[in-house]
Design a protein that fits this description.
This protein has 2 helices and 12 strands. It is an alpha+beta fold and about 190 residues long. The C terminus is likely disordered.
Length: about 190
């Protein structure tokens, strides 16, 4: 009878699941996506993002300190009121601009950047036929602008929707972006 308790979840880090029995080729990505939906629907739920952990051959990667710090930052900020960054960029909206797409992110008030100084990786766009092609990506403030020579009428975007995608897109606080897909009905898209 003490009310809702805060719950912290760890996002599964990139991992090669090809040796596992899976319900589909995107099963691991769908698991990560499900966590984001739970976070959207329930209060007092946080996620420690791990899409930047580059240990795709090790399910239980050894760098637990990064997860501990991220979970602690979430708890300190949301439960105890400390002013700490704790969330990586999460998909907010998509706008088609001719043959390009602009993706806006929440938790990017400090801007977007990449951890390696290169253009953002792991973006794909599709046209009306639904075939996803790799997209060229560039950062524009708190948004990423995408284009592909193979897609002239973009209708959907996927980011890091892959078992082993190690992202380089972060916010200004260095926290990694979470995967998303605009071609699936989620709580975020229904806003």
């Amino acid at each position: 009878k003490q009310g809702d308790f805060p719950v912290g979840m760890v996002q599964p880090a990139p991992y090669d699941c090809s040796k596992w029995a899976r319900s589909g080729p995107d099963a691991y990505s769908v698991q990560r996506e499900a966590q984001l939906i739970v976070q959207e629907r329930l209060s007092d739920v946080g996620i420690a993002p791990t899409m930047d952990v580059d240990a795709v051959d090790v399910l239980h990667f050894t760098n637990k300190q990064v997860v501990g710090r991220r979970l602690a930052s979430w708890a300190l900020a949301t439960v105890y009121g400390f002013d700490l960054p704790y969330a990586g960029p999460q998909y907010e909206s998509m706008t088609v601009e001719g043959s390009s797409v602009r993706i806006r992110f929440r938790d990017a008030d400090s801007g977007l950047r990449t951890s390696d100084g290169r253009p953002p990786r792991h973006f794909k766009i599709a046209g009306p036929e639904g075939d996803f092609d790799p997209a060229e990506a560039r950062i524009d403030g708190a948004a990423v602008v995408l284009r592909s020579d193979r897609v002239t009428t973009p209708t959907a975007v996927r980011f890091a929707f892959d078992d082993t995608a190690v992202v380089n897109l972060t916010n200004g606080d260095g926290l990694p972006a979470s995967l998303f897909r605009t071609d699936a009905a989620t709580e975020t898209e229904s806003r």
